[in-house]
Design goal:
The complex is a heterodimer of chains A (370) and B (292). By secondary structure, chain A is α+β, with helices and mostly antiparallel strands. Helices cover 23% and strands 35% of the residues of chain A. Chain A folds into two domains: 230 residues, P-loop containing nucleotide triphosphate hydrolases (Rossmann fold); 121 residues, OB fold (Dihydrolipoamide Acetyltransferase, E2P). Chain B has one domain: MetI-like fold (Orthogonal Bundle). The chains are: A alpha+beta (370), B mainly alpha (292). Chain A: It is a peripheral membrane protein.
Chain lengths: 370, 292
């Protein structure tokens, strides 16, 4: 039994089921990120935790108390909305303390909480302003202040950074992470941005088409994605998914892929049990950073496989250089060090870190577990 | 030495614009002519009106006609002037405007922020009431008022105008609140505010512009209404009906100066409302249509 339990929860509108049997349990102080493309049901799930959406079946409980049918204000939660939802007619101070006022907290106590939160978020100087006079980042802080002041069991964030410009978004992301480190609060955070998910969370639930595709730590999600969707959704650039065939030589499984010239190349798997797939088609998943030049290869890896192939295009991005080649008649992206000497049209010696490779069943698109 | 060209966008069409403004000024003066005639003639003794030039300024300035119209003129059978009817109108208009505006605001709030099944149909039906001509409902309305015991009373008129006004006020407030993010209501719910608290503390304080629209619209419509007033007013008829009785009386001399004064008195409250709140009216009508 965790701190926040979502047990067997579904959501239907009439006959249409939009969330299917969701099971998530997190401990106190965890930072759970619900991530997925739009329409995957992540905001609906958050709304159900908040009490803004009904629960069609199953139970949601906080601290062991089932909260189905409990009014949002009595669940001891606080929410930060995408549009911030600051009350336009009230000052920042009134915005922050409105919830306390509604809960009948006496004025001196309200003022004290307000002072603490304002200091924490560095918005002391804005307390008398109206939301219309604030910048995007300041509004964001006020919205968080309004949630913090309630000292709730669970914080809910609904895409809180998506209205900010790129630079501010990165800054606020760090702020939120710092805040979580400091306050050790339990947070459920919805986003469609996989980088936010990776950087902020202690646990990620990747959602797609109303199903939880995978629930795990950022590392688990990144290194051992449950299926092709999770593999390609998480990470930027996306994981390369290459059609390949398993061949077994001297008891060792190899992935046979066709290079740019249509010649078969053999990459030895680290995952032994793939010998069972001898002669069958699979999907080979390799992260861009697992394909490098030989000098840039991971020294800790036990299985660096050389691969000679034609370079189609190079994209210098400052910190890295992205190199595109063709494998299994798909464009495959490799992530090189910035100063790698490589040009389009060149035939190049790549090094593939097969320790990091994963294999998927092409039928179900599920990962073949070791 | 070549002259610097003055041909900028500011200068082009200066003559055309002067011409247009002159034309508009002329139209405006023409439009104001009836008001001028009314004011000028209400300030003359009767002999000067009947014997002289309608457009001329008074030779003897007098407020007699105004006094007469207000307190002594013959209205129907009694020489009461317009005063009691003016009060009737006030007693009718103020509650009718307040009640219909409050109900409209609540309706708009529910129809946008507390949506329910078939709410668009409910709204459609309410809109439909805006298009029902007054004449159609006269007889059923008379029956209802009779059954309620409100026939011929000011509260009866208030009820009639409230019922008729709800369609319009609901339309105004619904469209205004539709542009208002629902997340605000969600946030307030999580903060622990209930139905009325959210309305009172969050929505109403930002409803200024649309409230002005609703109040002006309702005020002018109800104040200027003649048909309902004359049909259901009974002994407590509003201003419009009394003005008709004053002007249309078929006995005695036609006191044009008194009629003019009476007509101005009848129009004053609506004029006042427009002058005080007119610019908010336009602003409110435009609200939501243009992103600020």
């Amino acid at each position: 039994m965790g701190f926040l339990d979502i047990a067997n929860v579904t959501k239907s509108y009439g006959k249409l089921e939009v969330l299917h049997r969701v099971d998530i349990s997190i401990e106190e102080g965890e930072f759970l990120v619900l991530v997925g493309p739009s329409g995957c049901g992540k905001s609906t799930l958050l709304g159900m935790i908040a009490g803004l959406e009904g629960i069609s079946s199953g139970n949601i409980s906080i601290k062991g108390r089932v909260i189905n049918g409990v009014h949002p204000s009595k669940r001891n939660i606080a929410m930060v909305f995408q549009s911030y939802a600051l009350y336009p007619n009230m000052t920042v101070a009134q915005n922050i303390t409105f919830g306390l006022e509604m809960h009948g907290v006496p004025k001196p106590e309200r003022d004290k909480s307000l002072g603490d939160v304002a200091k924490l978020l560095q918005i002391d100087h804005l307390l008398d302003r109206k939301p219309g006079q604030l910048s995007g980042g300041q509004r964001q802080r006020v919205a968080m202040g309004r949630a913090l002041v309630r000292d709730p069991d669970v914080f809910l964030f609904d895409e809180p950074l998506s209205n900010l410009d790129a630079k501010l978004r990165v800054d606020m992301r760090t702020e939120i992470k710092k805040l979580h480190e400091k306050l050790k609060t339990t947070i459920v955070y919805v986003t469609h941005d996989q980088i936010e998910a990776m950087t902020l969370s202690t646990r990620i639930a990747v959602m797609y088409k109303g199903y939880i595709q995978q629930l795990g730590t950022p590392k688990e999600i990144y290194d051992t994605p449950a299926n092709v969707f999770v593999a390609t959704f998480m990470g930027s650039p996306a994981m390369n998914v290459i059609p390949a065939k398993v061949v077994v030589k001297e008891g060792m499984p190899y992935a046979e892929v066709k290079d740019a010239k249509g010649e078969p190349q053999h990459l030895r798997f680290s995952q032994q049990n793939l010998t069972a797939w001898d002669g069958r088609d699979i999907l080979l998943g390799i992260r861009p950073e697992a394909i490098t030049d030989p000098e840039g290869a991971d020294r800790k890896s036990n299985n660096i496989v050389p691969l000679v192939n034609d370079v189609i295009v190079t994209e210098p991005a400052g910190s890295d250089t992205f190199v595109t080649m063709s494998l299994g008649s798909k464009d495959v992206i490799a992530r090189m060090r910035a100063d790698t000497d490589i040009r389009a049209g060149q035939r190049f010696d790549f090094a593939v870190n097969m320790d990091k490779a994963v294999a998927f069943d092409p039928e179900s698109e599920e990962r073949i577990k070791p | 030495m070549s002259a610097v060209s003055q041909d900028t966008a500011v200068n082009t069409g200066r003559i055309a614009r002067t011409f247009i403004y002159l034309l508009l000024l002329l139209f405006a003066l023409f439009y104001l002519l009836p008001l001028y005639v009314m004011v000028v003639n209400s300030l003359k003794p009767l002999a000067e009106v009947t014997g002289g030039n309608m457009m001329a300024l008074p030779q003897t300035w007098t407020l007699e006609a105004w006094k007469s119209a207000w307190s002594t003129a013959q209205i129907g059978v009694s020489p009461t002037g317009l005063e009691p009817y003016f009060l009737n109108s006030i007693l009718m208009v103020v509650p009718a405007v307040v009640i219909s505006t409050v109900i409209g605001a609540l309706n708009g709030y529910v129809l946008t922020k507390w949506r329910f099944r078939f709410d668009t149909i409910v709204f459609g039906l309410m809109l439909f009431s805006c298009f029902i001509p007054f004449q159609i409902v006269l007889i059923p309305m008379a029956m209802v008022l009779g059954k309620l015991g409100l026939a011929g009373t000011v509260p009866g008129l208030v009820l009639v105008h409230v019922v008729y006004g709800i369609g319009f006020t609901t339309l105004y407030y619904r469209n205004y609140y539709a542009t208002f993010p629902t997340e605000l209501v969600r946030a307030a719910q999580i903060d622990g505010a209930g139905f009325f608290r959210i309305f009172w503390r969050i929505l109403l304080p930002i409803s200024g512009p649309i409230t002005v629209v609703s109040v002006i619209w309702q005020f002018t419509n109800i104040w200027n209404d003649f048909l309902f007033g004359v049909s259901f007013g009974g002994t407590s008829q509003p201003m419009t009906a009394a003005l008709n009785n004053l002007v249309q009386s078929s006995t005695g001399v036609k006191e044009y100066n008194v009629h003019f004064a009476g007509a101005i008195i009848a129009a004053l409250p609506t004029l006042f409302v427009y002058i005080v709140a007119g610019r908010y009216f336009v602003r409110g009508l435009m609200a939501g249509s243009v992103k600020g």
